[in-house]
Amino acid sequence: xxxxxxxxxxxxxxxxxxxxxTARLVCLPHAGGSAPFFLPVAAELSPDVDVVAIQYPGRxxxxxxxxxxxxxxxxxxxxxxxxxxxxxPLTLFGHSMGAVIGFELARRLEADGRPPVRLFASGxxxxxxxxxxTTFTSDAATMAEVRRLSGTAAALLDDEEMMRxxxxxxxxxxxxIEAYRCGPDAVVDTPITVLTGDNDPKTTxxxxxxxxxxxxxxxxxxxxxxxxxxxxERSAEVMQVLKEHFRx
Length: 248
Prior knowledge:
Largest sheet: 7 strands, mixed
Domain Thioesterase TesA-like: 26-246
Protein name: Alpha/beta fold hydrolase
Oligomer: single chain
Organism: Streptomyces chrestomyceticus
GO molecular function, one term: hydrolase activity
Number of helices: 10
Shape: globular
Family: Belongs to the thioesterase family.
Order of helices and strands: HEEHEHEHEHHHEHEHH
Strand order of the largest sheet: 1-3-2-4-5-6-7
Helix content: 25-40%
Strand content: 5-15%
Distance between the termini: 26 Å
Radius of gyration: 17 Å
């Protein structure tokens, strides 16, 4: 492990800093998402768990930075930041695009000899599956997809100025995740818990089950009532799963 860099704070948001944590949870947002999405998780797990929510470039207080539209580049940058964090048992939690980022981070961390304890892959089909998606073809198409998934509050969707500011990051994220390709033989040793909504238009039950092909460490599936953002709709149930994990 190298020493933490002052610039790491730009990436790592600790909304409830823990003085003597026994474990670390790294939270990875969805496309168009930002670190505060995981504020409730930090509040629930503090102070025993060092909850680190990753803030991607190009949004909120990082809006002046260019968003990253290449998933490999984004994962590599996050990986370098995580390598500099103090050693603690590490769990990864990613929703939607964040689940794929979590999988790729697990591959890199295993190569470092610092494997995660577990990956929680939420709201995303297995990395080896593929759909022909081109959401980012226009601003209108991007906004239609956001509305379809109901991932942003209605008030924000109706605020033209705020949405115009958010669109560059949204477009970059969709370009990154839609261009991502992973071979069916890509496997980690990290155990995976898959979380999925039973009415998610982005992930069928079979696509969620397919995560089992990408780990030698065991894979379990938790199905929740809800759509793509079931983790907000069923937040208490999702938090119970995380609490059970950290009690072990």
